[in-house]
Design a protein that fits this description.
The protein has helices at 11-17, 41-50, 63-66, 101-114, 120-131, 133-152, 171-177, 192-202, 251-263; strands spanning 25-29, 54-58, 76-80, 94-98, 157-161, 184-189, 207-208, 218-220, 241-245. Helix 8 crosses helix 9 (251-263). The strands form 2 sheets. The protein has a 5-stranded mixed sheet with strand order 5-6-9-8-7. Helices cover 37% and strands 15% of the residues. The N and C termini lie far apart (48 Å). The chain is an alpha/beta fold. It is globular. The structure holds pyridoxal-5'-phosphate. Pyridoxal-5'-phosphate binds at residues 29, 33, 58, 60-61, 80, 82, 92, 94.
């Protein structure tokens, strides 16, 4: 399978990357991991459909509570249920949500043939998580907003990535298609890669970890962890970048932890 990467926030670049007659699917994340770029789902659906391709939206960062890609014209919504749907970092799974019955049947056929079927206990854990999705997401967003406010005013922080910020280039689109802006916040620090790694190592309430979307806050260095494998490609991330999955703890505890981690002790 061949693919071409294009910036999700640039509809014309996505259109140009489509190979007419060959491209079967336009696969996007919005917000993206870890730079929180925003793609306009309605516009991308139009571009994909003009070319006879499906629009697949990885909705993991937003969750179904904050964004509903099928309503906006997407053909498939993808969720890593490991993340917000499960919500407690105790299950690994995924879900494809589609509108079209024929597509659902084609996917179910492959799922059954390949054997990629969730076990009963894993399914139960995700179902239980979904019952509290709305209240968890509101708390994730409340805490993320506090963290963003703190980071944007911190002298050791050079850039904050969060679609809720008015200056974020995707803010207007995010406001149109999302209920709120989610619990993931990325930021860059002065002092380069080593400082970023040190900050990750000093945090205590934020546990060092690659996952996201659970009730507990996690911190990671994408360049050395989740995105180490894309170094040297067009998907490479800045080396002074830190990604936070802001949990549902007391906001003050999270700010105190970041303050200590950024200060150096
Ligand atoms: C946006 C997004 N989609 C999909 C995945 C894959 O999830 P899983 O670990 O459940 O395979 C991840 C994992 O980090 C992710 O961040």
């Amino acid at each position: 399978m061949a693919y071409d990467a294009a910036p999700v926030s640039d509809v014309e670049a996505v259109r140009a990357a489509i190979r007419p007659g060959t491209t079967k699917a336009v696969w996007v994340e919005t917000p993206t991991n870890p730079l929180l770029n925003i793609g306009d789902i309605e516009a991308l659906a139009a571009v994909a459909h003009e070319a006879g391709a499906l629009l697949v939206v990885d909705n993991t960062f937003a969750s179904p509570y904050l964004q509903q890609p099928l309503v906006l014209g997407a053909d498939v919504a993808v969720h890593s249920t490991t993340k917000y749907c499960g919500g407690h970092s105790d299950v690994v799974g995924g879900a494809l949500v589609v509108r079209d019955l024929e597509l659902a049947e084609a996917i179910a056929f492959h799922q059954n043939s390949i054997g990629a079927v969730a076990g009963p206990f894993d399914s139960w854990l995700v179902l239980r998580g979904l019952k509290t999705l709305g209240v968890r997401m509101d708390r994730h967003c409340d805490n993320a907003e506090q963290v963003v406010d703190f980071l944007t005013r911190h002298e050791a922080v050079t850039h904050v990535y969060y679609p809720g910020l008015e200056e974020h280039p995707g803010h207007v689109v995010a406001t149109r298609q999302m209920k709120r802006y989610g619990g993931i916040v990325s930021f860059r620090v002065s002092g380069g890669e080593q400082h970023a790694v040190d900050v990750c190592g000093r945090a205590e309430v934020f546990t060092l970890g690659e996952s996201l979307g659970g009730v507990e806050s996690l911190i990671e260095h994408p360049g050395r962890m989740t995105h180490a494998s894309v170094a040297g490609t067009e998907l490479e991330v800045p080396s002074d970048l830190i990604r936070l999955s802001v949990g549902i703890e007391t906001g003050e505890d999270l700010l105190a932890d970041l303050d200590r981690a950024l200060a150096g002790g």
